[in-house]
Amino acid sequence: MFGRSVTLFKLLGFEIKIDFSWLILAALITWSLASGLFPEYYKDLPASTYWWMGVAGAAGLFLSIVLHELAHSVVARNYGINMRGITLFIFGGVAEMGSDPPSPRAEFFMAIVGPLSSGAIGLFFLFMIYWSALLGWPVAVSGVLAYLAWLNIVLAVFNLLPAFPLDGGRVLRCVLWKWKNNLRWATAIASRVGSGLGLALLIAGIILILFGNFVAGLWWFMIGLFIRTAAQRSYQQLLARGVFQSKKVKDFMVSEPVAVSRALSLEEFVRDYVYRYHYQMYPVLSFGKVAGCVSVNQITSIPRDEWSRQTVGAIVKPCDENTSIGPDADANEALEIMNKTGNSRLMVVDGDDLLGIVTLKDMLAFLSIKMELEKNEKDG
Description:
alpha/beta; CBS-domain; four-stranded mixed β-sheet; three-stranded mixed β-sheet; globular
């Protein structure tokens, strides 16, 4: 779902991260408020005031989304769900769960607290508007407060739509889960509803674009695409977690991984390894122990005429913590790391000993076979 993200700060023990795509959203929100919404409703203010109002509105949006997702995270933690943090991206924010809710009750309270928190934030800003009128605050301040009140009420209502993975869709899933006592079936139904809503928004976006409202149509189209994709992916992730639930990393490990020696020249490394295996990263061994990692990107910084004189040991760097995993770790943990970082290969290590490599390709091949067998059993 995400690209590159950075951690901004910690709040109540949760990491608050921002995906670089959110900067696009912040810029678009600031521009649209400063050049469109605020000048339309609040006439004859200086241009600089409109831009400060736009910045304040974008900052308020940031705070509102963080508080919304923080409410999800606090409730989830109270139910024992491992929360990896909160990430803001171009379509808003998401509280990253390490596992599915343990019960329909946990699902319900974790989902419903999001719209309730947004509604409460909206009421708070409505109160602040009333207070600003009593105190005679500038119209620019009242305008920003009115925008944030309206925004949070809209967020609360929109998130109540019964379309997974929106909060309302999670409420729908918990009701279906409680009814049939089958999380997989409930997720399938809720995901179909979410996918249907996404398709409807896609079509609405195209219609708006055709009728000349390009900006609104583009946003509807993008939001519809996101909801439809997220709904389908959520169901696929549930299936994957179920399949890999009892599996360990060592069950998928290739025990003879491709590794390179520190003494290898860069020319030999490129010729015998990069051109042959086409991997982006290789573990580096010294006396049979992991000494670090070397990537193809590191080679590009070395002049071509020095490859025969430079060795791998001269450019080796410590391996990133997200490039390795233990043999007895849960297979779902490996999938989570791959999904989070984009790495399709993880070293399987025990201390400094390289035991093998686990790849996304091998795990997906197992998933495909497993699902095909289950489908044939049901058809039979």
